[in-house]
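[job 4471] stage=fold_predict status=RUNNING
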Amino acid sequence: MRFAGGAIGTIEATRFATGRKNYLRFEINGSLGSLVFNLEGTDELGDLDSLRWGQYGERSRLPLKWIYEVEQRRFLAYERHIARTFSHALVHTPIERRDFERLIPGVPVSLVGNGVDLDYFRSAGRPKRPASIVFTGVMDYFPNIDAVVWFCNQALPILQVQIPETNFIICGSRPTAAVQRLGKRRGVTVTGRVPDTRPYLDGSEVFVALLRMARGIQNKLLEAMAMGLPCVASTAAASGTVVPKGTGILAADAPEEFAELKLEHPRVWWPYTMGQPNMYDATLSFAVGDQNSDSTRFAFGIREVTSELTAEGNRLFKINGRRILIRGAAWTPDFLFRWSSEKLDADLAYARDMGLNTIRLEGRLDREEFFEKTDRLGILVMPGWTCCDAWEQWQDWQPEQHAVAEESLASQIRILRKHPSVFVWLNGSDNPPPADVEKSYLDTLSRLRWPNPVLSSASGQATTVSGKSGVKMTGPYEYVPPMYWTADTKAGGAYGYNTETSPGPAIPARGSLERFIPKDHLWPIDDVWNFHAGGGQFRTTDVFTDGLNRRYGRARTLDDYLRKSQAISYDGERAMFEAYSRNRYSSTGVIQWLMNNAWPSVIWHLYDYYLVPTGGYFGTKKACEPVHVQYSYDDNSVVVVNNTDKPLNDMRTSATTYNLDASAKTTKEATLNLLPDSSTKAFALPAVDGLTPTYFLRLKLQDAGGNIVSDNFYWLSTKPDTMAWEKSDWAYTPQKDFGDLTGLETLPQVNVETAATTNSSAGRATLLVRVKNPGRSVAFMVHLRLTRGKGGEEVAPILWEDNYFSMLPGEERSVTGTYDVSQLRGKDPDLEVDGFNVVSNSRHVHVEIAADDRR
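[job 4471] inference complete, writing structure tokens
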């Protein structure tokens, strides 16, 4: 063949043959000079076959060894002869160039890379066959036969001891009798000729290129890498690839090295409530020739997340095969998107301090620092698209918006998929996307090998694409009484997985209110307050305030309103989390709406904008403690919840009812053996005659040694709350009648006694407060505050061991609070104490502050 024209001049091609290979000799002549090179008719360019025959000889016994050695010498002589008839040679790899220059000196040689079609060899996201290993190649080719026989004899048995279900797939045409015999072994599949190797590559977990005799670039290795498969290669097979050993390809030659590719007893990642969030650090680099082109370091965790629908049709998640009850809250960034690493640390510390295991992100996905920290802290993250804006206005989408949505999803998934804390993705929020959008989202997730479950939305709407979501978004978002959560069976009550719900407004403490409500608008509640409420039908706190007035008695002053609002928030959040915890795994998850606020607010938070924890914070913390004793509003029973993975035996439970004047009426006890991850009913409380309309219930749980494991204090009414169920809507269920807690208004004032000491180290201070109730009445909702001097702003963030707690007459207890010394801002702190019926007082707290910590 001869081609001519242009600046090149002429291209002349001549076909010739040597051995079993066909060659094309190209001679290019033109104004730039001449270049002559050969193209093999096989899959390799510039390959020295003499070296391959030499490898055959090294692996063979007599008499084949002699034959291969003779062939090797003849091939080398012919290669030298034919190479010197050419003016230039092209090879693929630095190793080939080195061999060429050593064996055939004097002929100029250059490197030309090789590759595969990335569009053709592209993963389709097929499901992976568990523990599957694949090898591809023509199976009457001696190096391929040698490779699979060696692997089946030497490496596979070791792997099958560690992973019995390991399956080795030999995919290629013309398998010899020796290869076919391998297919009769346990865990070995020999396919024979297949029309397309890509399904076998895409459906396997690992590709092996384990040739002990190999020269040049192995295209099979490039194809597997293009499909996104982890690749394990022998040193010989990997030597022709530009990815160095230990980075893009794991190299192994000895049988035990293949076995080492399975981590022995890996330290798996767990949510912090289930174990340790173990992390590994990895370094990946990419080299071109001998030069490092790029590298990156990242942390990763080893864990598996699965989900399933329970018999009731509820979505249940499992971490490393263990069930988990999701208990979390929804996150919101600052309303001006101002970023603070210090504030993020405080937010995440608060989540763990409350015992929450999950944070939900509805859109507004934060920077990667957020996920790096949730990984290290073991806090699960539940991200997905947002509602109420363009992301759910699919009817208005134009073609470019479909493209933007797909690329936006791809961008987020590339960031999120390596983080072990991210356990699910939601393709919609209030509503699932239409079928075409959901399919495109699922295709993108599959293409990017998203390793976690996917939900169509946060709602219970089924789709024609993915079916039932198994979750619900049925509210409430407004105030409801504590009994609601165990009584409701059709909306937000404690069954299924509620992806966003709340007992309504959350009023900050006075110190925070005064920072965003002008003094002349602090009381009574007006439109300035409402400006800091929600939107839509949540523009006011009217429903909450009506419940407060009718259950606790009409609020007469701001301080009266605030003490009652903290009691409502504590009681409401505790009841919600306790109900879902008791009903595990008929209930599978609950997300509080919200955890924090984007700006100063009087609705939906567990701590306020200034990082000051409210009553709801400590009600949540109480309900989510690892081992917990609690009251059931629906059947008047006492239940013990064991959130740990260990059985607990000989646990003694007691329940004592008290009249409003703190006189004990009845006590009941039981000894229980608690299964791991369980809810156990201890007993039903007996009917008690002569109770005051408002009364108290004290629960206590002790271990076999008499140590208090959990205690809980309830304020109850002999008059029940009742609901107008027929008036329920998506926001809340109105009350028909209200319990009577007005007796709390008549509690005598109590002067609690306090003493405080502080220890400080490395910028962290721990305040130890000893509290005693010397009076004859219950000290109800005792509230501790640490301020920057007398009357100053509250020190926050701060981790109180407990707060808004109640004390019986004569009771003493100790409480710790931990904070950064820097939060004092150079001032001497004061401890301030108040409560529902506690006389406010303060005392100076001396803290030794190192000079470097004062700022």
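[job 4471] summary: The longest helix spans residues 558-582.
[job 4471] exit 0
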